[in-house]
Amino acid sequence: MTPTLWAAYHGNLESLRLIVSRGGDPDKCDIWGNTPLHLAASNGHLHCLSFLVSFGANIWCLDNDYHTPLDMAAMKGHMECVRYLDSIAAKQSSLNPKLVGKLKDKAFREAERRIRECAKMQRKHHERMERRYRRELAERSDALSFSSLTSSTLSRRLQHLALGSPLPYSQATLHGTARGKAKIQRKLERRKQGGDGTFKISEDGRKSVRSLSGLQLGSDVMFVRQGTYANPKEWG
């Protein structure tokens, strides 16, 4: 919406005068063919209508539905605007019918051109939105496919790891404990086989075995606590 259209739509006469006096086009329309006269008549701004007409705005202009400002005022029920525009149309037709014919023809050609341009813009917008929708749909489909592929791949890897993995922690702990106990048992057996804590003592050429309590440092030397080994004199 141009400044001229904005001022006519809201009925701001002071702004409209300022804008038009500084080069604003009173016949400039939007994409739908609405001129300042259409907007002012549609909203019942009679003071803006009279200013635009006195400034030379074309009262025969048409929007994309081939409606004149007079038609818009009649559809909205603004009868003062209807009577004013009707009087201006009658005056122009009586004073210069050829000029009125040219203005009507110009308005019709401009409306036809604008309708084609509007249809072209709508078609381009529709194609752009269609491409955007297809692109988003393809991206969403790719994301779903990737997610499905990732899930299936992860499931296969987890299954493979489960088939080739070692024992669970509880079973591995039980096996480790059993192996530790077996190792300790083998050490104890080796110690028993190495010696039973006895010393061999030779008496008069005869061999006998006496069980003594003490610390054995070798096969021939030992340390015993007092009272655990009797005096040789007491043997007999």
TrEMBL record:
Protein name: USH1 protein network component sans
Organism per entry: Ursus maritimus
Gene designation: USH1G
Residue ranges of ANK repeats: 32-64
Pfam families reported in the protein's UniProt record: Ank_2 (PF12796)
Feature: compositional bias, Basic residues: 178-190
Transmembrane segments: none
Record region (Disordered): 175-202
InterPro entries assigned to the protein according to its UniProt record, in alphabetical order: Ankyrin_rpt (IPR002110), Ankyrin_rpt-contain_sf (IPR036770)
Keywords, in A-Z order: ANK repeat, Repeat
